[in-house]
Design goal:
113 residues; alpha/beta; six-stranded mixed β-sheet; 19% helix
Length: 113
């Protein structure tokens, strides 16, 4: 990435099983689905094409997980996550309660040789 800018945003948590019920392969993966606007901010800040590999830190109240991305098709302001990630971040399951997490793009490492 060009410069040292940190790309970080807060998102509302949605269970990926609810958002993508016809994609069971993602229900237990180590990947999340983010909105296209977040990808646009990555591209603006990086000054380049889509990085070949992106990793993210997802945080809530001091708990962190590292993950990849399935695709950038989540609704604006939402992150779609597998249940195991939601449990690991200690996110409650109170009906109607909006839970939010902070997502940070991890530094893109240079290509190895």
């Amino acid at each position: 990435m060009a410069g040292n800018s940190t790309i970080r945003k807060s998102f509302q948590v949605v269970r990926i099983i609810e958002a993508m019920p016809n994609q069971p392969q993602w229900h237990h993966s180590g990947r999340v689905c983010l909105p296209s606007q977040f990808l646009a901010s990555i591209l603006v800040n990086s000054g380049s094409d889509i990085p070949p590999v992106m990793a993210f830190d997802v945080a809530k109240d001091g708990f962190h997980i590292k993950c990849g991305v399935v695709e950038f098709t989540a609704k604006r302001g939402q992150i779609w996550m597998p249940d195991w990630m939601i449990e690991r971040l200690r996110i409650g399951s109170q009906p109607g309660q909006e839970e939010r997490v902070t997502v940070t793009l991890l530094p893109i490492l240079p290509k190895g040789n």
